[in-house]
Amino acid sequence: MKKIGFLSFGHWQPAPGSQVRTASDALNQTIELAEAAEELGVDGAYVRVHHFARQLGSPFPLLAAIGARTSRIEIGTGVIDMRYENPLYFAEEAGAADLIAGGRLQLGISRGSPEQVIDGWRYFGYEPSEGDTDADMARRHTEVALQVLSGQGFAEPNPRPMFANPPGLLRIEPHSEGLRDRIWWGSGSTGTARWAATLGMNLQSSTLKDDENGKPFHVQQREQIDVYRAAWKEAGHEREPRVSVSRSIFALVDDRDRAYFGVNRDASDQVGMIDENTRAIFGRSYADEPDALVEQLREDEAIAAADTLLLTVPNTLGVDYNAHVLESILTHVAPALGWR
């Protein structure tokens, strides 16, 4: 059994063929797709966060709205770039959205990926400390956020406050019990997966990672998961961790599917430089008739090792088509693989 969710990048642009032409379209259709996914029995609705882009840049209002319009489905991110985040305000927003959703948030965070502008986090008012990188800054923001999400008091109260305070040091409010255990780290390497396990975060592994040994993508990703789980056990955490992987998977069951994705049947891993120093491997997409698709997915070692699968969706094709994509996986693929 696996939890199966969708991951939307929330693209919008006034281009021919796009069903998502404005930011309003992107936001409202994401809510509508989450509602449709819940009705279909999908387990999670996740959004990708990018700044300075025609995508979903401010996740917490959207997560809260999805939480208010749904009742069961997990609601998450994949991922929030912590280079851009004030960790205390992050904790306030996360706590409020989680309470609105009834404790269903699953927040993926990370050091982020290459963005639309150079050092975009500087425009948000953040600078790495002397001798640190922007990745160090993201991890420092993360560690502070995890501390305050624990709910422990840390702030000295005013002796003459406007309103009465509870005794002792004050914490960030609103506090949502259990949210600290529902923080995931989006890891692109074996080293950061090990670091995430040490801090007690769940693991999100996407469709790309550092190419660390030249092996196929799904093998490297499975090795990353193995290292993460070993580090979790060594750290002595009491609960079981969760691990997700993301994939683009399309079951070709009608003429629309074949027109959109039939040309990608022979897709393979790709290798490239995502910046001047980082060689990355990009996992293949899967698109085929259901029987063939099932056999291909049986060979994906990382999917087999994960408890959660996030299906990336082509959101610009509209809510109805994306609901069809999800339903096709649940109906024609998941049962044959034992995911349902």
TrEMBL record:
Residue span(s) of domain Luciferase-like: 14-259
Signal peptide positions on this chain: none
InterPro entries assigned to the protein according to its UniProt record, in alphabetical order: Bact_Lucif_Oxidored (IPR050766), Luciferase-like_dom (IPR011251), Luciferase-like_sf (IPR036661)
One annotated GO molecular function: oxidoreductase activity, acting on paired donors, with incorporation or reduction of molecular oxygen
Superkingdom as given in the UniProt entry: Bacteria
CC terms in the record's Gene Ontology section: cytosol
Pfam families in alphabetical order: Bac_luciferase
Ranges annotated as spanning the membrane: none
PANTHER family reported for this sequence: BLL6902 PROTEIN, LUCIFERASE-LIKE MONOOXYGENASE
Designated name of the protein: LLM class flavin-dependent oxidoreductase
Record lineage: Bacteria, Bacillati, Actinomycetota, Actinomycetes, Propionibacteriales
